[in-house]
């Protein structure tokens, strides 16, 4: 087959087309006609990996571009372009706060979700040792003695930006961590298991709001309520509060998120998951007063010294606009994605019958409206193999950060009780705001031909 020429179907200015295109066209120039001549064949590509990343909305691109042109000054300066930059940053902070039902002063801008999550963990280690010092318990941060290190509670299906920092602390004898297994019945971290793991030295419970592979919504509100009640008992015993953090990366833009309803102390915001730029933010309830936060970086006094460094005004402008769109349209987005996801699952079941295993459908459990994790059962139908055979579908087998281990079954699915042979065949489809039923029809037919090719029926 000859070389394929690919270009993006731009939905806005060509400069930004790469970021906003939903589909690709490919001219296959090597398909020979009966007369031996090459005839171009258009192949449409349909993107269904919105849990991995999303394109920028045109309004977001406009906000970024305008900030680049008009607000290029240093936000700490007093001249016009600097004051404009400061105003944009303040407006974006207010937009993010509105999106999550919080206060603008509780929003700290970061480079992304990984930094936000690490900042929370770092802060809790520092806070624990300062509390120990105030009590007169002068201990080495690397002390091997149990009970002298901060204790964290998380679950077995967390993102690597939670799991790996905690594992690093354990390896260096700087913390103790309990990884609570999720239920094999519903894919959730059970509240009772989390409460049972609490120790006198527990400082933080960190549980994601929605899982990126299964879409399962975790019972964060219920966890927070129980931890709040437990903290009253701990206070009477002279023990410090246990704080609650949730990584809301996958939930924002797909369902309503409210920090008051959730009752959390920290919440991670990731722009590129809701059609914004690749920066992030961290919500901290009563930052520095009610809830401790310690900088990992040192430099200028930006972000009230919690996250120094000259602010990235254009990206912050884009993040603010993306948050505005969520605040204005979240219910519409959610309803559309749920309709498309449900139609997708209906079509998969109709086409593949009993061979389809819906890995993300747990009885009685709320899940993200856009996520469908499934397996087509068959010895030759490993997820990455099926996707490699697809001509139209652009998707992944699971978390993008694990893409170098595509041939291994997902640890998340295994934790949820999915059998190894089924998990090995898993494909994660996640629809977006612009996905249509026609797109679904295209990719189901594409999956059908891919399976037929792999099983030697074509």
TrEMBL record:
The protein's name in its UniProt record: Selenocysteine lyase
Keyword annotations from UniProtKB, A to Z: Cytoplasm, Lyase, Pyridoxal phosphate, Transferase
Entry annotated with the keyword Transcription: no
Subunit structure: Homodimer.
Cofactor: pyridoxal 5'-phosphate
Main location per the UniProt record: cytoplasm
UniProt organism field: Mus spicilegus
Coiled-coil annotated spans: none
Keyword set includes Cytoplasm: yes
InterPro entries xrefs: Aminotrans_V_dom, Cysteine_dSase, PyrdxlP-dep_Trfase, PyrdxlP-dep_Trfase_major, PyrdxlP-dep_Trfase_small
Function, in words: Catalyzes the decomposition of L-selenocysteine to L-alanine and elemental selenium.
High-level lineage: Eukaryota, Metazoa, Chordata, Craniata, Vertebrata
Record domain Aminotransferase class V: where: 46-442
GO function terms (MF aspect): selenocysteine lyase activity; transferase activity
Similarity section: Belongs to the class-V pyridoxal-phosphate-dependent aminotransferase family.
Compartment(s) of residence: Cytoplasm, Cytosol
């Amino acid at each position: 087959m000859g070389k394929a020429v690919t270009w993006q179907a731009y939905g806005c200015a060509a400069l930004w087309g790469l970021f906003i295109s939903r589909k690709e066209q490919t001219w296959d120039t090597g398909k020979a006609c009966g007369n031996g001549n090459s005839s171009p064949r258009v192949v449409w590509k349909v993107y269904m990996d919105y849990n991995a990343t999303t394109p920028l909305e045109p309004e977001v691109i406009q906000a970024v571009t305008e900030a680049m042109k008009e607000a290029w000054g240093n936000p700490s300066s007093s001249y016009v372009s600097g004051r404009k930059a400061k105003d944009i940053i303040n407006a974006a902070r207010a937009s993010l706060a509105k999106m999550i039902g919080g206060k603008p002063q509780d929003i700290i801008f970061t480079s992304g979700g990984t930094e936000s999550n690490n900042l929370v963990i770092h802060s809790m280690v520092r806070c624990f040792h300062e509390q120990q010092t105030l009590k007169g318990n002068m201990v080495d941060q690397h002390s091997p003695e149990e009970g002298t290190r901060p204790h964290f509670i998380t679950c077995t299906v967390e993102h690597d930006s939670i799991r790996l920092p905690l594992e690093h602390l354990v390896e260096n004898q700087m913390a103790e961590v309990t990884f609570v297994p999720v239920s094999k019945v519903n894919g959730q971290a059970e509240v009772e298991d989390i409460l049972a793991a609490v120790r006198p030295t527990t400082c933080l419970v960190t549980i994601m709001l929605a899982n990126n592979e299964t879409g399962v919504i975790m019972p964060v509100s219920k966890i927070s309520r129980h931890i709040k009640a437990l903290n009253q008992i701990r206070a009477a015993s002279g023990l410090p509060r246990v704080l609650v953090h949730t990584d809301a990366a996958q939930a924002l833009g797909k369902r309503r998120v409210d920090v008051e309803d959730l009752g959390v102390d920290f919440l991670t915001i990731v722009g590129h998951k809701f059609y914004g730029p690749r920066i992030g933010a961290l919500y901290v309830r009563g930052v520095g007063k009610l809830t401790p936060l310690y900088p990992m970086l040192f430099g200028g006094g930006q972000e009230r010294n919690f996250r120094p460094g000259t602010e990235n005004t254009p990206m912050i402008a884009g993040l603010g606009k993306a948050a505005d769109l969520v605040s204005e349209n979240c219910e519409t987005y959610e309803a559309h994605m749920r309709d498309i996801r449900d139609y997708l699952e209906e079509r998969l079941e109709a086409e593949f019958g009993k061979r389809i295993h819906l890995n993300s459908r747990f009885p009685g459990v709320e899940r993200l409206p856009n996520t469908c994790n499934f397996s087509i059962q068959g010895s030759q139908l490993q997820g990455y193999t099926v996707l490699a055979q697809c001509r139209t579908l652009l998707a992944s087998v699971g978390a993008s950060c694990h893409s170098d281990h595509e041939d291994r079954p997902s640890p998340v699915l295994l934790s949820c009780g999915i059998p190894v042979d089924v998990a090995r065949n898993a494909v994660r489809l996640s629809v977006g705001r612009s996905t249509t039923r026609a797109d679904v029809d295209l990719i189901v037919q594409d999956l059908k031909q891919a399976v037929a090719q792999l099983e030697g029926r074509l």
